[in-house]
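QA checklist item 7 of 12: single-chain prediction sanity check.
[x] sequence parsed
[x] length recorded as 547
[x] structure emitted
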Amino acid sequence: MSAAFDRRASGVGAVARGLLFALVLPLLACTRGTGARVEQPKVSYSVLGEAAPTYRAEPSDQPALRGQYSDEVARGIEQAATEKQLALVPDGRLAQLAEWVAAGLDANGSPPPYPVIELWARHLGLPEPTPHLVVLIQSESDTLEQRTARELLPVLAQQRYTHFGVSAHERDGNVVAVTVLSWRWLSLQPVPRIVSPGATVVIAGRIAEDLSEPQLVLTEPSGTIRRLDPQRGRDFRAKVGVPYGELRIEVLARSALGTTVVANFPVYAGVSPPTEVSVALPAVGPALGDDEVIERLLELINTDRVSAGLSPLALDAELGAIALAHSRDMNANGFVGHTSPTTGTAKARVERAGIRTTVVLENIGRGYSPDEVHRGLMDSPGHRGNVLSPDATHVGIGVVRESEDDRAAYLVTEVFVRRALEIDVADAPDQLLDMVNAERVRRGTRPLVADGNMAALADGTARAFFAGDPGSRQQLVEALNRKAASKPSARYTRLASLLTVASALSEVRAIDALLDPQARAVGFGVAQGTRPDTIPNAIVIVALVGY
């Protein structure tokens, strides 16, 4: 019996962002037929041994081959790695992880779920994405070397691994061999796991030769996402302040398949790292259908968005077709990434489908349940940022089910975009004034006064924007300026006009001209429609500002 655990990986794109592949057993399991969701029994796992004080990319000098059969496994690994032209480096920490995994195998030979592996990996000071596991259980040792090589070949084809550790012992009359594989595509200055609140940590290192544009993405203790500017070349260095609580630090980089996760680890300030994790036992029953997986993922996405004070996303059939095609492409062609050799980037796929939008984000995940896929996404700052993007309004989800031993795994693509929703055009000027004035008051600036005459001029320009031959935006603004100048008012020393095309009224609140402390009055004109140079249902907002 063999079990390949979490055998692929992916990343987050800059334009089309998206996931590290994560496998976690479900915290809540779905029951078929009734639509009910029942909570499964839970089991707890604890950390073992002394914790590493820092995250380090250098391998430890502890033994990387453990157990009486580890040499046979190592020779099989060498055969497979040589065929795939990989140079794998032994790391004693991965061997220690393999020992813990072997001790934690369940009655079916399955390893502990993702949250446990994640807990143990960080306890050991591993900075890379959660390592992948291959478990082999057989009654004889004579064929262990050959079987290890045979089982590892398809695994090594999916990822450019760099490090490994092995545990191979006899247990209950069987040989139990656990190989832990990781990809460590960077050098890293040691980072402390625990600091004082308010301390500054330096995140510095160099990414691998075939990567570029390293970028740090942080999940603050509050749950908010902070993206630092990408850095040129391969070197990266940033000073990061650590507030009280857990700060999740992720290093991204550009690769041939899009942007990928290079490192992902938490730093703790004023709180102790977790020493135990409780996970639900997997549900017993038939695998979920694709529609059920999509329904559950949408529920999880919108639950997290509402908890963060964001609007829920609408499920979009057009985007779902794009997402499903990409999941099928990855499944059929043996890759996981945002940039497909045949269809290009997520942005290109969306544009090819005829969808005009200002935002394209993408997440990719694989797991044994929708809860597991979503948990992995939310543990990654970059992917969490996509799920909680305030710019997204719609999502499409595509699921491909893959058979793996006695259970089903789900390869998932999520595509997020921004579409303009229908608005009440008559009420929009009042809404805009309220939003702008709320922001002005927040900044300590007096509110603007509504001017009916200026509003009438702005309204005419907004309506003209979607007329049969409206002219360019600049031409419309110049025509508005001429009309305003022909009707001078002693109430203002000068007037300024602006025209912007948006997908939501909220985009206007941050326009500098409307927040100018010298501005006294405003007239808004709003129209909604579509023309060749806009997205569908675009909102044009025209403002005439008096000073």
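[x] summary fact logged: Residues 80 and 150 are 7 Å apart (CA to CA).
[ ] second reviewer sign-off
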